[in-house]
DNA sequence: TCCTAGAATTGTAGCGCTACAATAAAATGT
DNA sequence: ACATTTTATTGTAGCGCTACAATTCTAGGA
């Protein structure tokens, strides 16, 4: 409690102070900030000048309490360990800013942290909540739905909390698998991710299997990693695949980071990429363009996912229901395959 | 305005509702959440059970308005393009959570965006504001100081907004330069960063120069990059340094990402690292441990910087003044030098 | 059984802003 | 010049919670 006391502002500046200094009523100050078109230009200039001189910052909490609405969107991210969600957040921020909203972000690396983050953001009465597909605490869905706050789950499909926004993950997996087959690859390893990241990962393996089956190829070379955000997993799966089948000629990785790790491991083993084994990544991270060989990858339009999320959150009620909003993706063939 | 209307909660649940359902007064509900030790166990269990069943989430905005204090710290990050600030945010979150606070983050890639983010966070009346050293909008310092909100600037020194939290950047630069010299390097290139990132970068070059002077070596091989978060800069500086002096035998880079980019470029040119040219990075990113050769780097204790920031923000008034809080760093010699 | 002290619960006013309504001032029409 | 309409400004009550105060309840002692 004493901690809370210490954060009390030493000098509280309110609309009353600005009003007194500008010779108008507090309501006029409020209207200058909230409904500027209702105030005469001369009056408004005077008020805003005084406000700036005093360093007045409107209290958003009081504003949202009185107005019953907020201009802030809350986003929960599972990781910022690498650039997985960089473009997504760019899309969120730009789309929100275009509508006069701000985005506040909380990082949550476990389902329990995600639940706590959601509670904080709901407590701040954000205008909308943007989640990312992944394992959720059991109570999250209920909590969010009972709150009545608009919610989207990016990278999620039909089973999303709120509405899903994603791209055709299965379609991308199919296309990438077909690309490897078209390159002449016949013993293709698939790297799955344990614990689920929701549709980010779960739709990929079935699609891979369908394409392998359709091409009359075996689909048995599947390895699972615990997390998809570290280079180390890439090194490990090269070890594991080669122990399983020395004839393996391609690996399809869950992210560009894992793929880069796999390529580094191949380099360390003197294994030629793509001559001896092709490596494909996912996500079109920066690193994929810089390593040698440059990395073949799936490029989701992550910024479009972010924009789509905002348009759902701030759109009308009907937009918050229905089938997942799907955005585009590209297969980017590069040197590694 | 119609946008704001649509974000109105369809069903508002307040302490009144919980109180009615639990057969107590709203003040008792408030005390259960705020001062649980003031409520009898039997009463508290009943109230919390009802609250959970109803899906009640306390309105933090109303709470902070009434209490005059917040349990939320605001952090502004300049980038999440790579893992620069990952460990820093871990330190922030952990230290805040230990004291019952949450951290909300805003990403701001330009000084104007940083100013807007600071305004939003001040408007939310966060308990404290954690900035990161870099070019700031001119009005930022005044705005933050007038607000009376506790503020720290991580990676900043004596000229910090609020108090600085950092490590001895000059000391690290000296130590890394001495390491290269001790390895027998004599033509050492230094990569500076344009536009400043505050003390994150500005203390490095003078320290480099002092060490080179003290060793009787030339300090003329200095290149400047616009940003330190992309691999491409690393490739470019290898080009540029070799055009300047083919005898160059080491490069000291501003981040591990730039250093990795430089190593990739040396690989592409068939230039041996460290046989032909040593490469040192900065920041101990994941990638430094994965590439071949593994990367020599400076490891700041970024999580300690985050923890230090929180202890200042939530500490007493005296802790918010004074010399920058300095944390440790390590030089991590690896294969690249 | 009555009194006192401490614990538990509840009451009151207000935090800073704003939706909606009321009033005042300015502009337009006869 | 006066009446009416439109524009600009201001007044009121309340958003959901809580600091502080007041009241009620419970337990222990005389």
Major β-sheet profile of chain A: 6 strands, parallel
N-to-C CA distance of chain A: 60 Å
- Residue windows where pLDDT falls under 50 for at least 5 positions of chain A: 1-10
Rounded to an integer in angstroms, the radius of gyration calculated over CA atoms of chain A is 25 Å
CATH topology of the largest domain in chain A: Rossmann fold
Largest interface in this structure: A-B, 84 and 84 residues
The CATH architecture classification of the largest domain in chain A is 3-Layer(aba) Sandwich
Record field, number of beta strands of chain A: 12
For the record, the count of structural domains of chain A works out to: 3
Strand order of the largest sheet of chain A: 2-1-3-4-5-11
Question: Strand pairing plus helix content of chain A: what structural class?
Answer: alpha/beta
Q: Helix coverage percent of residues of chain A? A: 40-55%
Strand content of chain A: 15-25%
Mean pLDDT across the residues of chain A is 91
Oligomeric state: homodimer
- SSE order of chain A, as H and E? HHHHHEHEHEHEEHEHHEHEHEHEHEE
How many helical elements of chain A? 15
Topology of helices and strands:
2 copies of one chain form a homodimer.
Chain A: H1 2-6, H2 15-22, H3 26-34, H4 41-54, H5 60-67, E1 72-77, H6 86-98, E2 102-107, H7 111-123, E3 128-132, H8 140-147, E4 151-154, E5 163-167, H9 169-182, E6 188-193, H10 199-202, H11 204-214, E7 222-225, H12 232-244, E8 250-252, H13 256-268, E9 278-280, H14 287-290, E10 297-300, H15 302-314, E11 325-327, E12 329-332
Parallel strand pairs in A: 1-2, 1-3, 3-4, 4-5, 5-11, 6-7, 6-8, 8-9
Antiparallel strand pairs in A: 10-12
Chain B binds a DNA duplex (30 and 30 nucleotides) through residues 12, 14-16, 24-28, 30-31, 33-34, 38-40, 43, 58-68.
């Amino acid at each position: 409690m004493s901690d809370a006391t210490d954060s009390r502002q030493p000098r509280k500046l309110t609309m009353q102070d600005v009003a007194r200094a500008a010779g108008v009523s507090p309501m006029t100050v409020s209207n200058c900030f909230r409904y500027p078109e209702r105030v005469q230009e001369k009056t408004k200039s005077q008020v805003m000048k005084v406000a700036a001189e005093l360093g007045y910052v409107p209290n958003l909490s009081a504003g949202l309490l009185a107005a019953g609405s907020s201009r802030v969107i809350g986003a929960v991210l599972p990781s910022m360990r690498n650039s997985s969600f960089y473009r997504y957040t760019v899309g969120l921020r730009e789309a929100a800013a275009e509508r006069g909203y701000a985005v506040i972000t909380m990082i949550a690396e476990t389902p329990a942290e995600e639940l706590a983050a959601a509670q904080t953001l709901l407590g701040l009465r954000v205008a909308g909540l943007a989640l990312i597909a992944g394992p959720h605490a059991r109570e999250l869905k209920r909590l969010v739905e009972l709150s009545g706050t608009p919610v989207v789950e990016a990278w999620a499909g039909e089973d999303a909390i709120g509405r899903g926004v994603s791209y055709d993950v299965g379609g991308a997996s199919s296309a990438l698998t077909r690309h490897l087959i078209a390159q002449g690859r016949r013993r293709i390893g698939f790297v799955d991710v344990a614990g689920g990241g929701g549709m980010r990962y779960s739709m990929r393996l079935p699609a891979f299997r369908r394409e392998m089956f359709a091409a009359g190829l075996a689909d048995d070379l599947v390895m699972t990693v615990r997390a998809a955000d570290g280079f180390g997993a890439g090194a490990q799966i090269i070890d594991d695949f080669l122990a399983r089948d020395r004839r393996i000629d391609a690996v399809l990785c869950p992210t560009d980071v894992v793929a880069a790790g796999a390529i580094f491991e191949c380099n360390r083993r003197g294994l030629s990429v793509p001559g001896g084994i092709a490596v494909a990544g996912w996500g079109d991270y920066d690193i994929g363009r810089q390593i040698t060989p440059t990395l073949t990858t799936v490029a989701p339009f992550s910024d479009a996912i972010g924009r789509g999320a905002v348009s759902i959150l701030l759109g009308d009620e009907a937009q918050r229901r229905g089938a997942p909003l799907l955005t585009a993706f590209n297969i980017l063939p590069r040197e590694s395959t």
